[in-house]
Task: structure prediction
Amino acid sequence: MFSFLAENLKYIQIGILVIALIYLIVNKDVFEQYYIPITMLFAGGISNIADRFIHGGVVDYFYWHYWFDFAIFNLADVIIDIAVALILWAQYILYKKEKAEKKKNELQ
Result:
């Protein structure tokens, strides 16, 4: 994916991580609320950037061929996916709480 960016992709990814870090410094409450998944995202991102500098690309080393025959991935990708799922789950729970509170306030 994004192979047309070749050598520039690692610098774009560094830029994205720097922008995300600045955002988190300005919005400390976001980091405090999601520190585990954010840490996982940064760890996976830094790992992928390190692969790009060391190996010239992200090294995929798991080949899953049980029900389908195309999934090749690495641990950093899995950690990033889990982090995104955790953030989405936390947002869903927050949404449900806010919706319940709103409904409760309307009934009073």
